[in-house]
Amino acid sequence: MASERPLLIPSPRIPNTQDLLTVPVFLDLTKPNSGRPGSLSVMESKNPAENSFSVEHNLSSSSQRSVFSIQSKTSAGNSIREGGFGDSGSKPVRYGSGRPDSEALAMSQKEINDEDARLIYINDHEKTNERFQFAGNSIRTGKYSIITFLPRNLFEQFHRVAYIYFLAIAVLNQLPQLAVFGRGVSILPLAFVLLVTAVKDSYEDYRRHRSDLIENNRLASVLVNDQFQPKKWKDIRVGEIIKIQAEETIPCDMVLLSTSDPTGVAYVQTINLDGESNLKTRYAKQETLLKMPDKEKVGGLIKCEKPNRNIYGFHANMEIDGKRLSLGPSNILLRGCQIKNTEWALGVAVYAGRDTKAMLNSSGAPSKRSRLETHMNFEIIILSMFLVALCTIVSICAVVWLLGHREELNYLPYYRKADFSEGADGDYNYYGWGLETVFTFLMSVIVFQIMIPISLYISMELVRVGQAYFMIRDSQMYDEASNSRFQCRALNINEDLGQIKYVFSDKTGTLTENKMEFQCASIWGVDYSGGNSQVEQDEYSVEVEGKVLRPKMKVKTDPGLLQISSSRTDAKEGKHIHDFFLALAACNTIVPLVVDTSDPTVKRIDYQGESPDEQALVYAAAAYGFMLIERTSGHIVIDIQGKRQRFNVLGLHEFDSDRKRMSVILGCPDNSVKVFVKGADTTMFSVIDKASNKNIIRATEAHLHAYSSLGLRTLVVGMRELSASEFEQWHSSFEVASTALIGRAALLRKVAGNVESNLSLLGASGIEDKLQQGVPEAIECLRTAGIKVWVLTGDKQETAISIGYSSKLLTRKMTQIIINSNSKESCRRSLEDAITMSKKLKTVAGVTDNAGGSSEARSTPVALIIDGTSLVYILDSELEEQLFQLASECSVVLCCRVAPLQKAGIVALAKNRTADMTLAIGDGANDVSMIQMADVGVGISGQEGRQAVMASDFSMGQFRFLVPLLLVHGHWNYQRMGYMILYNFYRNAVMVFVLFWYVLFTCFTLTTAINEWSSVLYSIVYTSLPTIVVGILDKDLSRRTLLKYPQLYGAGHRQECYNSKLFWLTMVDTLWQSVAIFFIPLLAYWHSSIDISSIGDLWILAVVIMVNIHLAMDVIRWTWITHAAIWGSIIATFICVIVIDAIHYLIGYWAFFEVAKTGTFWLCLLAIVITGLIPRFVLKFICQYYSPSDVQIAREVEKFGDPREFGAVQIEMNPILDPQRR
């Protein structure tokens, strides 16, 4: 098995005057991501340009590309900071705000003051917890305890109003005056549903408690009485010093004091925290590096921010030995991470238990409700009104009957007014017509209670679980590359997948692989793209300690550039190339690891880093002979064309979303000090010295535009040499800024900005982020299905447009509307002009089509391309309405240079203005807000960790899996769930109407002919299983057909499976079937002496047979499980009725055996089924023959084969409807 170790060669500190300047510098910034400037932020002001309005449109050539460009003059620069994980407080979220104090400010940039600070005394947990009792390290993720389980679980379950309704019914039935059913029997249905849910919740909570117990009882080595002793995690206190061995998990958030590495480096793996497997470097301060707490007394004070959720930020100061040191994210180890490639590490606990960042981030995604379930509530209200109407009719009829028979009440069995018992004098069982009316109404509610289907809720949960199982097991949504299956993280919105109208997608890592590959470079104005001459040369290698080291990944190289870089020429051209690749190798946070190979003499260097861009650049530098082979906190070693050179790292300004660049200050072997900077072109050119080499700048800008047009990700590289005075000024400024208590983040940004100025332009790089497999086909399929795809990316406009063409999001037939504005008024004019133009294009296209004899007017497809700067002024303003009006006219919307909160704002724009369903899909932490805003959130298990997955409702490995998820599983889930809800309404309403007819023929006394046990078992046993099985297994169309004809997905957009029309047709059908069930036996036995129990058995059997055969008529895909469920339920009903009637102390003893002996009984059952179902059969035939839907046509194609075999037959699909406005 290949072993891994860091290629770090310990070297003593050089005892000279520069020793004071080699202290490593790390800023407490947001998540390092230096290679991806476009993915984290936002927007920059565009180059000055006059407002332009140009349309290139040729109606006679539909293939000609049309561009509608709207640009405005440059105004003051604008920026949006990336949203962090910190609590946003009660202020409303501003999706487009560019204010410096925006709530989108990252938590790592949040300042702290004395009131907000937490004081930790190193190695003195008693004093630390003396004033404020900080949380212990014990964690608890379980929701319940033994004492609180019952009340809390019941409280949560009764949030469903239907449960309160059935509880009220059960309570009413306990009153003697209203007791229709047995008191125990009436509570049984509700108790069963509550019990099933409680068992499920208790099991889930038991698993959480068991996990907590294991976690809390793990052992860690803690300093106690000057000795490291094992201590349970739950007993660790803030302020204690902890020793972590290699491969051990960190028990709490702790500031790193020292490590086994002489330079204080520790390597951690954060896969348990954010899913990222690459190693991160953490550093101990030089002042604490040599302190050994078990051999000498260690003390000090740490002043840090209060606990927060930002796993990428930490803000603190440490006072030790009279010095005050600044602490940042690179000095803290977080709970749940693992120590790798480091023998041991010492740290002091600063956050424990529930205060750790891991626990603060453990909350799941926000709860979402299914759109179908929301619509279902409206129908339940209608059914409630039905129920009230039926009860009112019975009550009114009862009053009329009582008043009409007032003289006979003394002798009638149910209203016997006089008490004839011996010695009694008074009324018996009669309360006057007023109270009798009230009692009749309440008793009617009890008898007709199943009009509201309590079993529907638990049936829906079981069906969703079954649907999720088959989605998870779908082999066509399994990603072999990442070995990841589809995950269903939210069971309550499965059916929403069948109604998606808008898909909002990230680009990098979602449409693309996020596996960067270096393609080309522009160095000192010369383009080294190589054309088709790029080849994979023999890998560059170096020899260290008798071992040959080679980069793990191969890179295609440009032969000319390779020759110049390896010639070691001192010419000016060679010097610029030397500095360019030195910048690529040094300006990063990459950690080189040595990996064993099958050949013991050959080792591979694996460059581990948080940014795929950085990895690609370092591999490229190695391919051209600049191989990074060692990194410590104070220096790096780079093999340059076979010669190892050591560079002291004097300072490092990591990437942040404000500057959009990073820089490193190196002490070179020739004793010079240089600052190397790389970053986004929009920010780099503002710090380039434009006074010299204007031709080089212009050439580089042209090369950047060419690279972007090819879809490449670009970075600009610059440098300058610092004089001794400049370096001293920077160093002193940095020391002041890094120890400031107030405004530290702003001061550090200012220090970085000062040193990153007047740079000499070295060149630019082009990195290819290849499209994922099947993305173009997936987007085309989604658009054919009537789904609008919007892409929201942080990349620059040219790159996004190029990817748009390669992914088939954009086509040459589309007219592009481009909005790049830098003021609110300019945005307003641009939107107005764009709306006018889109309407003109639509009108002209329609007139042209009609003039050409076209049978239908088709509008020219329009694509809207807008940048983040424009969105600053549009979102959260009155311009939102105009933007949506324009976007709704467009086939494609492409948003470039957008910040994370702006992504959420775009989703909200569509979600709040239409009745259509939205889906957001992304792979990174910057996509979380978008994923949580959409109706359905999908996370990609990609290269950027698992933040998006953890916040999503569903997760998968590739974008192309969205097609089977929506078009296949989404269609099936929606069709099944829509039918199941209507069927449950029908099934219960049939029973209620039968009971209602019986009440009308029994003087409104609300007695029931059907045995009370059969009434209870009707929804639980007799009819529940078939609907659940059909809801899980039935398929109206095969996978192949659904994928072949994406237009079939439009059934969900048109709500064909669940709508008001179907509901009312179902109720009419229900009414007719109940008439057949009740009146056919009534007429057949009108003159007979049959007893109530016997005809009640006939009615319950007729209802069960009717509803199951009704279900069988609608089943499309029969399996043995479906047969067993439907026909087995009918058999089970007969068995239950026989058993109930065989119990001698129950009412109706032996009734079934008497009535079943006659032929009339069986003829009635046959007549009921035929009479009840014939109208439904005839109506289905007429509708499917004369007005078939797309699904019915496709089903016939499946049944009779491909229509092409029968001649020129075409399948005409229904048109895609415009979105409904809210």
Number of domains: 6
**With helices defined by DSSP (H or I, 4 residues minimum), what is the helix count?**
37
The third-level CATH topology of the largest domain is Calcium-transporting ATPase, cytoplasmic domain N
CATH superfamily of the largest domain: Calcium-transporting ATPase, cytoplasmic domain N
Q: What is the end-to-end distance?
A: 60 Å
How much of the residues is beta strand, in percent?
Answer: 15-25%
Question: How is the main sheet built?
Answer: 11 strands, mixed
Active site: 506 (4-aspartylphosphate intermediate)
Domain P-type ATPase C-terminal: 949-1189
Subcellular location: Endomembrane system; Membrane
EC number: 7.6.2.1
Structure description:
- Helix content is about 40%, strand content about 20%.
- With about 1200 residues, the protein is of the alpha+beta class.
- It has six domains: about 120 and about 235-360, Calcium-transporting ATPase, cytoplasmic transduction domain A (Distorted Sandwich); about 140-220, no CATH class; about 375-450, no CATH class; about 500-510 and about 770-835 and about 860-955, HAD superfamily/HAD-like (Rossmann fold, 3-Layer(aba) Sandwich), CATH 3.40.50; about 510-530 and about 540-770, Calcium-transporting ATPase, cytoplasmic domain N (3-Layer(aba) Sandwich), CATH 3.40.1110; about 970-1200, no CATH class.
- A hairpin with a 5-residue loop joins β28 (about 660-665) and β29.
- The strands form six sheets. An eleven-stranded mixed beta sheet has the order 2-3-33-34-35-32-18-36-37-38-17, sandwiched between helices. Strands 20-19-31-30-29-28-27-26-25 form a nine-stranded antiparallel beta sheet, sandwiched between helices.
- It starts with a strand and ends in a 22-residue tail after the last helix.
- α3 (about 150-155) packs across α5, α11 (about 455-470) packs antiparallel against α27 (about 960-1000) and α13 crosses α14.
- Mean pLDDT is about 80; it is low at about 1-95, about 95-110, about 845-855, about 1205-1210 and about 1215-1220.
- The chain contains 37 helices and 38 strands.
